[in-house]
């Protein structure tokens, strides 16, 4: 261990005071903050919101103060196809409906993992991981697919937002407190060799408690509803007493089995052209397992562009907080010049950021366009779910260089994959630890 030497600190102070450039920059940072002082005007000029390939998608949605970005992005990809197929205008699917079932299923998924690890000490890495966040708003593509397949979907008019869906901090704190309390009982039952029936009776009673909390906070999910709309040509449609599953089958029209997750994780422990899954990552116990195919970034971008050129938007996951100018809606690798501001080298490779905890997937959005120069993308159009007050009416611009560094996952039709990529996709996935950065949940 090396203690700080007071003489060294005095020398550092003297060096700072002797540097006129640093003193001038100090005044800028003191008054404006770090990012405002480091913002690079070139990033704004280079990333104007104009695109040669631009899909029509309608208005952006707003997840408000919740971490449901992955869910909004998935529902938006379905909505894009629905608005085209049925000539809908300003239409949204109910995010609250899917949110209810996600919370409900995550509780049951937590019970299963708590029971499976009940003979490990509370201090074990897996149990500590489970108890740190029993459930949260975040998720992954395969998790939302499991919800769609089991529960269908409904229009937003059938189950609108509530105070707790739009501002989820209280609901999450309440549920996590309840789940941790229930975990004490479940672990105690296993330790005392309770029968499987006894454990299951407790699990059902606990799930009833969770259901009650959700019903009071989010409302009861509809079993039947009427669906009315007038299309862009003026035709009025009225569907009576539809079930969520019937609505999904008639209006969703996406075969989710045709879509696969492609990741770019250039770390030494994850060779390309290999598939991966993550231990204890999911929501629906019998749902679709999470599975990724790891590819080089050039191949990931090529697949994303193919799907856009086919007229279909692309769900993707990234680290949105990195080098992002939120109010202007610009994600650019050169958005801020911290190196010049502080005269310190902050640069890391993508692999280093993943391996050392500096970056991971934190947010999911939708690619809806790209600007091509000689058929090569220079920037990408992004549909966010933060409302229309940021960016260009809610749409962001992502530079191609930013995509290289901070995009980790896309979802594309598997028929777009090459023969070699499809063969790699068919291989048995390697299981990653629950804490692996590829197990991060999009929740911004």
Helices and strands in order:
Layout: H1 6-17, H2 20-32, H3 34-38, H4 41-46, E1 53-54, H5 69-86, H6 95-116, H7 125-132, H8 141-151, H9 163-166, H10 169-191, H11 196-218, E2 225-230, E3 236-242, H12 244-252, E4 259-263, E5 274-278, E6 292-294, H13 297-309, E7 314-318, E8 324-325, E9 330-331, H14 338-342, H15 350-355, E10 363-373, E11 376-383, E12 395-399, H16 400-406, E13 407-413, H17 419-425, E14 430-432
Parallel strand pairs: 4-6, 5-14, 9-12
Antiparallel strand pairs: 1-10, 2-3, 4-13, 5-6, 7-10, 7-13, 8-9, 10-11, 11-12
Helix pairs in contact: 6-10, 6-11, 10-11
Q: What does this 3D model show about the protein?
A:
The protein is of the alpha+beta class and 444 residues long. Helices cover 43% and strands 16% of the residues. Strands 1, 4, 5, 6, 7, 8, 9, 10, 11, 12, 13 and 14 form a 12-stranded mixed β-sheet that branches.
What descriptors fit this protein?
two-stranded antiparallel ribbon, globular, 444 residues, 17 helices, single chain, 43% helix, alpha+beta, 14 strands
User: Tally of extended strands?
Assistant: 14
Helix percent reads 40-55%
CA gyration radius, whole angstroms: 24 Å
- What ranges have pLDDT less than 50 throughout 5 or more consecutive residues? none
* Overall mean confidence score, pLDDT: 97
């Amino acid at each position: 261990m090396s203690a700080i030497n007071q003489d060294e600190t005095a020398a550092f102070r003297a060096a700072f005071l002797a540097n006129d450039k640093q003193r001038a920059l100090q005044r800028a940072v003191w008054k404006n903050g770090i990012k405002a002082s480091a913002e690079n005007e070139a990033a704004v000029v280079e990333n104007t919101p104009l695109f040669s390939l631009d899909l029509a998608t309608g208005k952006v949605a707003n997840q408000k103060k919740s971490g449901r970005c992955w869910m909004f992005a998935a529902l938006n990809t379905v909505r894009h196809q629905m608005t085209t197929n049925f000539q809908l205008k300003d239409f949204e699917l109910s995010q609250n409906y899917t949110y209810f079932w996600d919370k409900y299923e995550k509780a049951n998924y937590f019970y299963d993992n708590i029971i499976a690890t009940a003979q490990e000490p509370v201090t074990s890495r897996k149990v500590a991981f489970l108890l740190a966040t029993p459930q949260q708003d975040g998720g992954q593509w395969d998790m939302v697919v499991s919800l769609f397949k089991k529960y269908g979907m409904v229009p937003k008019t059938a189950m609108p937002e509530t105070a707790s869906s739009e501002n989820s901090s209280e609901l999450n704190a309440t549920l996590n407190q309840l789940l941790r309390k229930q975990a004490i009982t479940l672990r105690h039952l296993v330790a005392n060799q309770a029968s499987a029936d006894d454990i299951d009776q407790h699990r059902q009673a606990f799930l009833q408690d969770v259901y009650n909390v959700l019903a009071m906070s989010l409302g009861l999910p509809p079993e039947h509803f009427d669906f009315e709309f007038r299309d862009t040509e003026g035709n009025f449609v009225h569907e009576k007493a539809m079930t969520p599953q019937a609505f999904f089958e008639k209006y969703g029209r996406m075969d989710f089995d045709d879509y696969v997750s492609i990741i770019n994780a250039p770390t030494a422990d994850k060779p390309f052209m290999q598939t991966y899954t993550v231990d204890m990552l999911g929501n629906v116990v019998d749902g679709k397992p999470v599975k990724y195919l790891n590819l080089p970034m050039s191949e990931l971008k090529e697949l994303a562009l193919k799907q856009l050129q086919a007229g279909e938007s692309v769900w993707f996951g990234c680290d949105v907080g990195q080098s992002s100018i939120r109010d202007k809606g610009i994600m650019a690798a050169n958005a801020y010049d911290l190196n010049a501001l502080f005269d310190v080298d902050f640069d890391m490779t993508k692999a280093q950021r993943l391996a050392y905890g500096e970056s991971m997937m934190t947010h999911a959005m939708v690619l809806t366009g790209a600007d091509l120069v000689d058929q090569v993308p220079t920037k990408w159009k992004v549909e966010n779910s933060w409302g229309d007050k940021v960016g260009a009416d809610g749409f962001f611009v992502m530079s191609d260089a930013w995509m290289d560094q901070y995009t980790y996952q896309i979802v594309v039709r598997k028929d777009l994959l090459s023969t070699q990529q499809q063969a790699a996709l068919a291989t048995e996935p390697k299981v990653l630890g629950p804490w692996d950065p590829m197990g991060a949940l999009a929740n911004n």
